[in-house]
Amino acid sequence: MTKLIIILLSAVFINNYVLSRFLGICPFLGVSKKINQAVGMSVAVIFVMLIATAVTWPIQIFLLNPNNLGYLQTIVFILVIASLVQLVEIILKKYIPSLHKSLGVYLPLITTNCAVLGVTILNITEEYTFLEAMVNSLGSGLGFFLAMVMFSGVRSLIEGADVPKAFKGLPITLVAASITSLSFLGFSGVIENLFA
To answer: Which of 10, 22, 155, 159 is most open to solvent, judged by the fewest CB atoms within 10 Å of its CB?
Structure first.
């Protein structure tokens, strides 16, 4: 149980895919302008990460590894993730059309969100059991959610700030993103020491 808690908290705070591994930067910068879009995108990413792990882990362990087809991992995982994103898009379009419309082009971009692919591959690389892989995926999704919501708040403050002309637009967004990511460095070593 302690190992699962460490995996979960590490995925959220220490090994945050956006702020420490720099995966999933496109939606982080593109969909973080409004809090409702950031929340909607994050929930969709959490769902896709969990379902992708639930599907790819058994495929890797019971199909690819026994048949020496590990070299097909990336291709198979991308196909699974793309299919799942299409499923999420269909569900959102039918049941939550306002969120589907607000996410716009960014929803199909979950397919190319390297954070989702990174989680599924890292679960195999770290040799997690199925339960550990699911906990890591949940933590990674929650970490993505935290980063998106936090940065959405930062961006809303930036819009009302008096920013020098040279920094307006993308430059101040990138500066704010780097400062936000630095705030997560303080968690390094804390989680492991809590349970030591």
So the answer is: 159
